[in-house]
């Protein structure tokens, strides 16, 4: 027994497993960026191969793709965060000034004067409690933004890791499949190949059916909001595209809020136009999505919805992308296993029937 345990502990497989676990813990802070880089590289690889036929050095084609595609996306993400912080700060400052103004003009005292004497002390304590609660909320929000600013250096490191992981996975990612295949028993190679095909189809389905659809809806939304004269039209377009990604929801929260805002400010014509425009965006999904992903695997909306909800909780903002992709890949692996199991069952039944027929013929 001791000899067997010693053989196991001294085997290459056990040593590699321990080293992999240690490496996983080491990479944990940037693991989401590595996963994200591998997924983006998988999508960019076919484009890189086409460009490599016209470029002498393969690395140049990858650098070109990163400059044209990846860096603008990172800048767009940074712009979104910047505008969101700016709008939140403006809203908080306005709200804080509003409540301070209410306190200075003694609105609470005016209301208290209309109450019975025995209720005035209770009303004063309630007003004080509300004011304290508002101040606590404001301090909490400001504290969140201060923490966000503190994490900017780490965010820069993550962006650095993302860009370089995209580069190296795009250039050398095909080697990963070979390395993984060496650890898989030969009788499982067919299952591994089928799993790789299923994952590829699922990734294409998510990309074309959801991300690309969201991108198109977001671009159309940004152009429409700009024509209608809204401030931060690009930011509103980005929010529209993000809402479009989430199953069941779609872009309606954005144009509904804009319609309510215009209606409350007396701009009835624009309120009606943005509502009609929003309905058009929602209906366009019925035509854009099937046209882009009709030939790929149709993933159940619940899987994507769970990915969008749970992803940000686990991976932060990148979870909006990683969550659906990871659950989609898991779904693909299960599909591949199910197909392989059915295939083996059919093979077994075929062999049994062949044996019976040979026995009967004899």
UniProtKB/TrEMBL annotation:
Keywords, in A-Z order: Membrane, Transmembrane, Transmembrane helix
Protein topology in the membrane: Multi-pass membrane protein
Entries under InterPro entries matching the protein: AI-2E-like
Cellular component terms per the entry's GO annotation: membrane
Localization per record: Membrane
One Pfam short name: AI-2E_transport
Transmembrane segments: 12-45, 57-81, 151-169, 205-228, 234-261, 268-288, 308-334
Homology family: Belongs to the autoinducer-2 exporter (AI-2E) (TC 2.A.86) family.
PANTHER family per record: TRANSMEMBRANE PROTEIN, TRANSMEMBRANE PROTEIN 245
Designated name of the protein: AI-2E family transporter
Protein source organism: Candidatus Methanobinarius endosymbioticus
Lineage of source species: Archaea, Methanobacteriati, Methanobacteriota, Methanomada group, Methanobacteria
């Amino acid at each position: 027994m001791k000899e067997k345990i010693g053989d196991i502990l001294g085997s290459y497989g056990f040593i590699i497993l321990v080293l992999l676990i240690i490496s996983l813990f080491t990479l944990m802070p940037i693991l989401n960026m590595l996963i994200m880089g591998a997924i983006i590289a998988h999508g960019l690889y076919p484009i890189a191969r086409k460009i490599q036929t016209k470029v002498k050095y393969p690395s140049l084609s990858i650098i070109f793709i990163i400059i044209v595609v990846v860096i603008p996306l990172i800048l767009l993400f940074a712009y979104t965060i910047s505008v969101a912080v700016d709008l939140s700060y403006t809203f908080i400052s306005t709200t804080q000034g509003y409540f301070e103004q209410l306190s200075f003009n003694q609105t609470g005292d005016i209301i208290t004067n209309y109450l019975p004497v025995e209720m005035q002390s209770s009303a004063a304590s309630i007003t004080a409690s509300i004011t304290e609660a508002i101040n606590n909320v404001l301090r909490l929000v400001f504290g969140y933004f201060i923490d966000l600013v503190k994490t900017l250096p780490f965010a820069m490191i993550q962006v650095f890791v993302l860009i370089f992981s995209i580069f190296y996975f795009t250039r050398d990612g095909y080697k990963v499949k070979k390395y993984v295949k060496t650890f898989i028993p030969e009788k499982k190679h067919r299952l591994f190949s089928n799993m790789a095909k299923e994952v590829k189809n699922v990734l294409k389905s998510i990309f074309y059916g959801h991300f690309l659809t969201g991108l198109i809806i977001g671009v159309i939304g940004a152009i429409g909001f700009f024509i209608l004269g809204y401030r931060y039209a690009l930011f509103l377009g980005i929010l529209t595209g993000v809402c479009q990604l989430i199953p069941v929801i779609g872009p309606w929260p954005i144009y509904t809020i804009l319609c309510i805002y215009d209606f409350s400010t007396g701009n009835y014509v624009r309120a009606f136009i943005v509502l009609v425009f929003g309905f058009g965006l929602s209906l366009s999904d019925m035509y854009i999505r099937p046209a882009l992903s009709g030939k790929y695997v149709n993933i159940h909306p619940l899987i994507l919805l769970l990915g969008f909800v749970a992803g940000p909780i686990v991976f932060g903002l990148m979870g909006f992308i990683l969550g659906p992709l990871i659950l989609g890949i898991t779904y693909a692996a299960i599909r591949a296993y199910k197909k392989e199991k059915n295939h083996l069952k059919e093979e077994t039944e075929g062999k049994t029937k062949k044996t019976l027929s040979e026995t009967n013929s004899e």
